Amino acid sequence: MIWGGQAMARDKTEQPHAVDRHVGRRVQEKRLDLGLTQSALARAVGVSFQQVQKYEKGTNRVSASKLFEMAEFMKVEIPFFFHGLKDAQPGLGEEETPGFDHEDRPTKQSVEIARLAPRLPLRNQKLILEMMREILGEPDDRPH
User: Fold this and answer.
1) What DSSP assignment string belongs to 29-81?
2) Rounded to an integer, what distance in angstroms lies between the CA atom of residue 101 and that of residue 103?
3) Closest Cα to residue 32, out of 117, 108, 137, 125?
Protein backbone atom coordinates (compact mmCIF):
# COMPACT_ATOMS: atom_id res chain seq x y z
CA MET A 1 0.00 0.00 0.00
CA ILE A 2 1.09 3.58 -0.58
CA TRP A 3 0.19 6.28 1.90
CA GLY A 4 1.60 9.77 1.66
CA GLY A 5 4.22 8.67 -0.86
CA GLN A 6 5.65 5.94 1.41
CA ALA A 7 5.25 2.19 1.12
CA MET A 8 3.35 0.67 4.00
CA ALA A 9 3.52 -2.88 5.29
CA ARG A 10 0.49 -5.02 4.70
CA ASP A 11 -1.98 -4.99 7.60
CA LYS A 12 -1.44 -8.11 9.73
CA THR A 13 -5.06 -9.15 9.20
CA GLU A 14 -4.84 -8.68 5.43
CA GLN A 15 -4.39 -11.94 3.52
CA PRO A 16 -1.68 -12.17 0.84
CA HIS A 17 -3.03 -11.37 -2.62
CA ALA A 18 -3.70 -14.40 -4.84
CA VAL A 19 -1.19 -13.18 -7.42
CA ASP A 20 1.53 -12.79 -4.78
CA ARG A 21 0.86 -16.34 -3.54
CA HIS A 22 0.94 -17.70 -7.10
CA VAL A 23 4.19 -15.92 -8.00
CA GLY A 24 5.73 -17.10 -4.73
CA ARG A 25 4.71 -20.68 -5.42
CA ARG A 26 6.24 -20.51 -8.89
CA VAL A 27 9.48 -19.08 -7.42
CA GLN A 28 9.56 -21.98 -4.96
CA GLU A 29 8.81 -24.59 -7.64
CA LYS A 30 11.61 -23.35 -9.88
CA ARG A 31 14.05 -23.02 -6.99
CA LEU A 32 13.37 -26.60 -5.90
CA ASP A 33 13.50 -27.82 -9.49
CA LEU A 34 16.98 -26.31 -9.82
CA GLY A 35 18.04 -27.81 -6.49
CA LEU A 36 18.66 -24.40 -4.94
CA THR A 37 18.33 -23.53 -1.28
CA GLN A 38 16.52 -20.40 -0.18
CA SER A 39 19.91 -19.07 0.93
CA ALA A 40 21.44 -19.60 -2.52
CA LEU A 41 18.58 -17.78 -4.23
CA ALA A 42 18.73 -15.03 -1.61
CA ARG A 43 22.46 -14.48 -2.19
CA ALA A 44 21.94 -14.38 -5.96
CA VAL A 45 19.34 -11.61 -5.77
CA GLY A 46 20.70 -9.72 -2.75
CA VAL A 47 18.08 -10.44 -0.08
CA SER A 48 17.96 -12.53 3.10
CA PHE A 49 16.77 -16.13 3.04
CA GLN A 50 13.91 -14.99 5.31
CA GLN A 51 12.85 -12.61 2.54
CA VAL A 52 12.83 -15.50 0.06
CA GLN A 53 10.61 -17.43 2.51
CA LYS A 54 8.20 -14.49 2.60
CA TYR A 55 8.21 -14.23 -1.21
CA GLU A 56 7.46 -17.95 -1.53
CA LYS A 57 4.55 -17.74 0.92
CA GLY A 58 3.22 -14.64 -0.79
CA THR A 59 3.45 -12.68 2.46
CA ASN A 60 5.76 -10.19 0.78
CA ARG A 61 5.37 -9.09 -2.80
CA VAL A 62 8.31 -9.61 -5.13
CA SER A 63 9.30 -6.27 -6.64
CA ALA A 64 9.68 -6.02 -10.39
CA SER A 65 13.46 -5.65 -10.09
CA LYS A 66 13.79 -8.73 -7.83
CA LEU A 67 11.51 -10.75 -10.10
CA PHE A 68 13.71 -9.74 -13.03
CA GLU A 69 16.85 -10.80 -11.12
CA MET A 70 15.28 -14.12 -10.14
CA ALA A 71 14.25 -14.80 -13.73
CA GLU A 72 17.76 -14.03 -14.95
CA PHE A 73 19.38 -16.20 -12.26
CA MET A 74 17.00 -19.14 -12.75
CA LYS A 75 17.13 -18.75 -16.55
CA VAL A 76 13.38 -18.41 -17.09
CA GLU A 77 11.30 -15.71 -18.75
CA ILE A 78 9.26 -13.48 -16.41
CA PRO A 79 5.92 -14.92 -17.66
CA PHE A 80 7.00 -18.26 -16.11
CA PHE A 81 6.08 -16.85 -12.69
CA PHE A 82 2.54 -16.04 -13.83
CA HIS A 83 1.87 -19.22 -15.82
CA GLY A 84 -1.42 -20.83 -14.83
CA LEU A 85 -2.80 -17.69 -13.21
CA LYS A 86 -4.97 -16.12 -15.92
CA ASP A 87 -7.64 -18.82 -16.01
CA ALA A 88 -8.27 -18.73 -12.27
CA GLN A 89 -8.74 -14.99 -11.70
CA PRO A 90 -12.21 -13.61 -11.01
CA GLY A 91 -13.56 -10.90 -13.28
CA LEU A 92 -13.78 -7.29 -12.18
CA GLY A 93 -17.45 -7.65 -11.28
CA GLU A 94 -16.86 -10.75 -9.17
CA GLU A 95 -15.55 -9.16 -5.99
CA GLU A 96 -16.62 -12.00 -3.71
CA THR A 97 -15.15 -14.77 -5.87
CA PRO A 98 -12.27 -16.47 -4.07
CA GLY A 99 -8.89 -15.81 -5.64
CA PHE A 100 -6.55 -18.37 -7.10
CA ASP A 101 -5.10 -20.60 -4.40
CA HIS A 102 -2.87 -23.63 -4.31
CA GLU A 103 -3.92 -26.18 -1.71
CA ASP A 104 -0.76 -28.27 -1.81
CA ARG A 105 2.59 -26.53 -1.77
CA PRO A 106 5.33 -28.41 -3.57
CA THR A 107 8.05 -30.11 -1.57
CA LYS A 108 11.56 -30.95 -2.67
CA GLN A 109 10.44 -34.57 -3.03
CA SER A 110 7.30 -33.79 -5.08
CA VAL A 111 9.30 -31.62 -7.48
CA GLU A 112 11.90 -34.38 -7.83
CA ILE A 113 9.17 -36.97 -8.48
CA ALA A 114 7.75 -34.72 -11.21
CA ARG A 115 11.21 -34.25 -12.70
CA LEU A 116 12.12 -37.95 -12.70
CA ALA A 117 8.77 -39.50 -13.71
CA PRO A 118 8.94 -38.67 -17.45
CA ARG A 119 12.24 -40.57 -17.68
CA LEU A 120 10.59 -43.82 -16.55
CA PRO A 121 9.09 -46.27 -19.02
CA LEU A 122 5.33 -45.74 -19.38
CA ARG A 123 4.56 -49.07 -17.66
CA ASN A 124 6.54 -48.00 -14.56
CA GLN A 125 4.85 -44.59 -14.57
CA LYS A 126 1.46 -46.33 -14.51
CA LEU A 127 2.54 -48.65 -11.66
CA ILE A 128 3.78 -45.75 -9.56
CA LEU A 129 0.61 -43.77 -10.26
CA GLU A 130 -1.52 -46.76 -9.16
CA MET A 131 0.57 -47.09 -5.99
CA MET A 132 0.19 -43.38 -5.18
CA ARG A 133 -3.58 -43.54 -5.72
CA GLU A 134 -3.82 -46.59 -3.48
CA ILE A 135 -1.80 -44.92 -0.71
CA LEU A 136 -4.00 -41.81 -0.95
CA GLY A 137 -7.20 -43.83 -1.18
CA GLU A 138 -8.18 -42.16 -4.45
CA PRO A 139 -10.20 -44.01 -7.06
CA ASP A 140 -8.69 -45.16 -10.32
CA ASP A 141 -10.09 -42.81 -13.00
CA ARG A 142 -9.13 -45.04 -15.93
CA PRO A 143 -11.90 -46.57 -18.05
CA HIS A 144 -11.99 -50.35 -17.62
Assistant:
1) HHHHHTT--HHHHHHHHTS-HHHHHHHHHTSSPPPHHHHHHHHHHHT--GGGG
2) 6
3) 108
Name the residue among 17, 22, 141 with its Cα closest to residue 87. Answer: 22
The amino acid sitting at 10 is R
Higher pLDDT, 5 or 84: 84
* Cα–Cα distance, 101 to 21 (Å, whole number): 7
Q: First-to-last CA distance in the chain?
A: 55
pLDDT digits (tens, 9 = 90+) for 33-83: 888 899 999 999 999 999 999 999 889 999 999 999 999 999 999 999 998
Distance CA 58, CA 80 (A): 16
What the chain holds in terms of domains, given with CATH numbers, is 13-88 (1.10.260.40)
Write down the pTM of the prediction: 0.59
